[in-house]
Design brief:
Layout: E1 3-11, H1 14-24, E2 29-37, E3 55-65, H2 74-88, E4 95-97, E5 101-104, E6 107-119, E7 124-134, H3 150-153, H4 161-182, H5 188-192, E8 201-204, E9 209-216, E10 222-225, E11 230-233, E12 241-242
Parallel strand pairs: 1-2
Antiparallel strand pairs: 2-3, 3-7, 4-5, 5-6, 6-7, 8-9, 8-12, 9-10, 10-11
Helix pairs in contact: 2-4
The structure holds biotin.
Length: 243
């Protein structure tokens, strides 16, 4: 794929930047990386702490055909692509917290924020996939949960943000193509083997449902096993937490 790559010193949010890039309708797949963000965005309206020079802030514009329904599963597909890319570079034991947080045994390593640009022509859907990975960050002031970084978890390796960006961009382009052509099918098994909720007691919908984490179904819904049944939980519907 041809990329329209922008490397920025500082930006509000690379996701916002790619949304602007898309609306200008240039050539190539829009990609932005920045050295720091002044208004980094996280999921659920939270902000994403984005200090200068220490981490990867990357966003890519992706186009899909077939309407919004095709986006079911995309978050999980991106998580698998990012985990594969990091393991290619020497990381190990990368876990995924449904739907798409990137985890190490000691805490959150990164996050993915998918934002919708909208439907341009009938059936053509454009999204921005924003990926933040903690690379060198040594102190995360204001973090609301345990976190980790590549350099602290794998100190023996050299963590170049350029190489990480290259590996992730390639993995995401390849995964998005496979997902467009064949749907979620081939991603179920690679996602499940990284499931950090597997076998754990998990609650959903603010405690309304409690069950044992049991992987995902063929569409990427999370499955909670209770004494009586297996309940599928839809992406976007709730957040899961270990009880
Ligand atoms: C999460 O809440 O876990 C998702 C965090 C996503 C952060 C990345 S950093 C690059 C891109 N630009 C943003 O403003 N957010 C995403």
């Amino acid at each position: 794929a041809r990329l329209a790559l922008r490397v920025l010193d500082e930006v509000d949010s690379t996701n916002a930047e790619v949304l602007r890039q898309i609306s200008k309708d240039g050539e190539g797949l829009p990609v932005s990386v920045a050295d720091c963000q002044t208004a980094g965005r996280g999921r659920r309206g939270r902000s994403w702490i984005s200090p200068r020079g220490e981490n990867l802030y990357l966003s890519m514009g992706l186009t899909f055909h077939g309407g919004f329904a095709v986006l079911d599963g995309l978050s999980l597909v991106l998580g698998v692509a990012v985990a594969n890319a990091l393991e290619q570079l020497g990381a190990s034991e990368i876990g995924l917290k449904w739907p798409n947080d990137v985890f190490l045994p000691h805490g959150k390593l990164g996050g993915i924020l998918v934002e919708l640009q909208g439907e341009l022509q009938e059936g053509v859907v454009q999204v921005v996939a924003g990926i933040g990975i903690n690379v060198h960050m040594s102190d995360l002031e204001g973090a609301d949960q345990p976190w980790s970084s590549l350099a602290t978890a794998f100190p023996g390796l050299e963590w170049s943000r350029n190489r990480i960006a290259g590996a992730i961009i390639t993995a995401v382009v390849d995964a998005a193509r496979l997902f467009s052509d064949q749907g979620f099918r081939d991603f179920r098994e690679p996602w499940q083997k990284r499931d950090i909720f597997l076998g754990k007691q998990v609650e959903a919908r603010g405690g309304e449902i409690k069950g044992t984490g049991s992987g995902i179904d063929e569409n990427g819904n999370y499955l909670l096993r209770t004494e009586r049944e297996v309940i599928p939980v839809r992406a976007g519907e709730i957040s899961l937490r270990v009880t």
